[in-house]
Amino acid sequence: MKIAVIGTGYVGLVSGACFSEFGFDVVCLDQDAEKIARLRAGEIPIYEPELDTLVKRNAERGRLSFTTNLPEAMAGATAVFIAVGTPSRRGDGHADLSYVYAAAETIAHEIKEYTVVVTKSTVPVGTGRKVAEIIRQTNPKAEFDVASNPEFLREGSAIGDFMRPDRVVIGCDTDAARAMMRQLYRPLFLIETPILFTSLETAELIKYASNAFLALKISFINQISDLCDQLGANVTDVSRGIGLDGRIGPKFLHPGPGYGGSCFPKDTLALMKTARDAHSPLSLVEATVDYNDTRKVQMADRISTALNGNVAGKNVAILGLTFKPNTDDMRDAPSLVIIPELVKRGARIRAHDPVGIDEAKKHMPDITYCADPYEAMQGADALVILTEWNSYRALALDRVKTLLKTPTVVDLRNVYRPDEMAELGFDYTSLGRPKVHPDPGKPHLMAEGGRRLT
Ligand code: NAD
Questions:
Q1: Closest atom of ligand 1 relative to the 120 alpha carbon
Q2: 338 C-alpha vs ligand 1 centroid, how far in Å?
Q3: 430-434-440 Cα angle (round to 5)
Q4: Ligand 1: which atom is nearest the Cα of residue 84?
């Protein structure tokens, strides 16, 4: 069976590579000729762990190829996945569906036999029906069904998420479409993945409801962490204490600088718009969006407070720019609000990220980028940990201390322990955990790697 994937971004490329790993013939198409040329040359245009190996293996086996030519991609394909972007539309926050509709129209011309057209892009309720209407109008002779198969993969662990998902959601109306979708996901039957068949509308809503719920959960623990700061409680213990309740679960209960990324911000806005249009507003989601926006600015306040209330003229080292570790995706990263806010207040920024610097430069060309985290800290008045990359989890703290002008650390991911940092002589601020003050009379001797000697 041959699959065509329209749109070879984070989702299209990962889905295409994984379907080819399942054993299907896959052609990934994109309108971006440069991206396709790089893929053909064996270069992966995004950073995603394990993706290069998967693409290389399946391309070599002849099961995965890349093109800009639609007739070539669709020749003999009986399943076509639409995986183009659905960014926020300027002005009203609704999803911009122009890429999806343009893809539907071009696909329509190339449907020669019964084909299932699958929307993998995150699309508002009603889009699947509209895609069917566009195809029908463009090519009245086309034999096809439309299915909705929203994607739940997380950047940074996308391959594992696709190959071992918690569930697969498929919305469709006909037995023929259901049979084809079942065949595509048959490899997951072995690992007993729940496959949920629903209507088109329900599948579309499941995706938005999932993302909105996760955004809400993150915002909830962020607010609880603020409350911990006021009450002297410890958010790590609160998270564990509530997360052990099976009805709540331990995931997404880590406080941070506010959610970002290519999905939650735009998907919460789009769901709010859908709900308002349907006269059934989602006040909880609206409150979440408002709070998350203010949280990022509050993080700049926290950094400022750690620097005695004024960042003007201060050098601030920032570790981590991407919205989360293991991706180079900068879309709606909290750093894009926090850093400009610090700059506006007069701070000088020296930033490091393991893979995100090229992308970050496009958004923030005027800050200083460093190739090494320790270079960023040289002479800085404070160190801020913004994204919890593994390489920041075991910094040589003795070296950090000698490099910083003042030993001030603001950890917006709670990577380090307040008591240990205080013992090492740092003025350490984290989220929702009681501050421990360094003992000024105590010598702070450390071995390499930050281990204390006495
Ligand atoms: P992306 O921007 O990385 O990729 C989209 C690709 O589509 C681009 O390469 C673009 O050139 C191409 N494209 C646009 N119109 C086209 C057309 N008419 N023909 C051919 N190619 C076209 O986007 P993404 O992050 O992969 O997201 C795609 C969809 O999946 C979105 O709806 C998103 O919400 C959803 N999604 C994303 C993630 C994620 O983690 N990135 C997770 C789940 C769902």
A1: 30
A2: 26
A3: 90
A4: 7
For residue 50, give both structure tokens. 């394990």
pLDDT over 70, % of the chain: 97
| Ligand 1 atom closest to residue 11's alpha carbon, by position in its atom list | 26
From the alpha carbon of 263, which atom of ligand 1 is closest?
34
Q: Which residue has a Cα nearest atom 25 of ligand 1?
A: 10
Taking the CB of residue 179, how many other CB atoms lie within 10 A of it? 11
Q: What is the pLDDT of residues 221-262, one digit of tens each?
A: 999 999 999 999 999 999 999 999 999 999 999 999 999 999
What pLDDT digit, counting tens, does each position of 57-85 carry? Answer: 999 999 999 999 999 999 999 999 999 99
What lines the ligand 1 site, CB under 6 Å? 6-12, 29-32, 35, 83-86, 99, 102-103, 121-122, 151, 153, 155, 262-263
Average pLDDT of span 97-114: 98
pLDDT tens across 387-427, in order? 999 999 999 999 999 999 999 999 999 999 999 999 999 99
228 is catalytic: no
Which domains are assigned to the chain? 2-198 (3.40.50.720), 294-450 (3.40.50.720)
Q: How far is the CA of 32 from the centre of ligand 1 (A)?
A: 12
Protein residue with its CA nearest to atom 29 in ligand 1 = 121
Question: Which is catalytic among the residues 18, 28, 172, 263?
Answer: 263
Q: Whose CA is nearest to atom 44 of ligand 1?
A: 151
